[in-house]
Each structure stands twice: as structure tokens, then as C-alpha cells.
Amino acid sequence: MATAYEHYTRKWDSTITERMMEPDTYPTLKPWAVQLLLQWTRQDPVSQKELTRVENVYAIQRNRNPFIDYPDLIEYIWGNKVGTAWHFSITDNPETIKPKLKIYPNPTKDKVNIETELTDGTISYKVITLTGSIVLSGTTEGKSINISTLPSGVYQFVVENKAEKLVNKLVVL
Q1: pLDDT, greater one: 130 or 34
Q2: Domains, the chain
């Protein structure tokens, strides 16, 4: 929040800014808060739950958390790499390095058809709730999966093979 919304810190609850933030000044966070948060991120690396969440958010909002996709970015902003250039290449972007996944019809009730660039034989699939619970999984060499047992809702649809993992939003009516 401090990175994206530094210019709003004066409008936040004064107890927060008095405790952790220095409004309108880089690095926004007070030195003790920077050290605490750096220690936290170094001791608690990005988990599978966070990776699932960022994919769920992306499926709905079409935006990502760069600190989940690039955990070392924190070091370049506040840590031991401040002043070092962070090189970002278009090929580093998680959205561009993944082959496309198309699922249709979407929304659907009974089945979903898969169209993907994954060509390495059997494809594993998972249907995951927005809270991270796997509600359907299996493998297929075909292009159609029966989802008629799923209740109505919004899900994360994941397909993967040995080399790739692709994610898309699935809406079940």
C-alpha cells in the first residue's frame, strides 16, 4: 500500500501514519517499520496460498501483485539492493511467458472445453474456489471436462503439464 499509494498517506488513519509512516516522503515507512517488514519478507517467502490468491485476483481484476510475482523487488525498493538497477524484461512478465489458455463456453453449466498451447501429452486440471479449495481435479488427454457437479460460482481453472501451468477464470451457472 505504501508503494502504490504514498501520496494518500496523509488521508489515512493518523494512528497508522504516526506509528509506521512518514507521509509524502520516500521510503514512506519509518526506518523501524522498513526493517521489520524486510525481516518478515525474508523469513516468510511467498507461499503457494499467495500464488493461488494472486492468480485468483488476476482472473477477476486483471491486475497482479508485483511483490508476489517478483519477491526480490522489495530489496530494490527498501532492502540491500537500493540504488541497484532492477532490470525488467517483457519475457519476465508472468502474463507474457505463459501460453494462452481458452476455456469455453464460459459461463457454463455442464462441461468446459479446453483450448491450450500445452502439447506435452496428458494435461492435469484443477478447479479451485476463490478461497483456494480444490473442488475438482484430474487428468485428461481430451479437450472437454465434465463440471456438472460444481455449484454455481466463480472459480480458478488451472491446467498444467510437466513444464507449464496456466490459469483462467471459470464461471459456473
Answers
A1: 34
A2: 6-91 (no CATH), 100-172 (2.60.40.3080)
